[in-house]
Amino acid sequence: MLRVTFLGTGGTLPTPDRNPSAIFINIHGDTMLFDCGEGTQQQMMRAKTGMKLSSIFVTHYHADHFLGIPGLIQTMSFNGRTEPLDIYGPAWTEQFVNFLIELGYFRLNFKINAHELKGGDVIDKDKYSIRAVETDHGIPSLGYVLLEKPRPGRFNREKAMELGVPIGPLFSKLHQGETVTVNGLEIHPDDVVGPLRSGRKLVYSGDTRPCEGIEKESRDADLLIHDGTMAHDLHEWAVETKHSTTKEAAQLAKNAGVMKLILTHISSRYSENTKQLLDDAKEVFVNTSIAKELMEIVIPLPE
Question: Fewer CB near the last or first residue (10 Å), C or N of the chain?
Answer without folding.
Answer: C
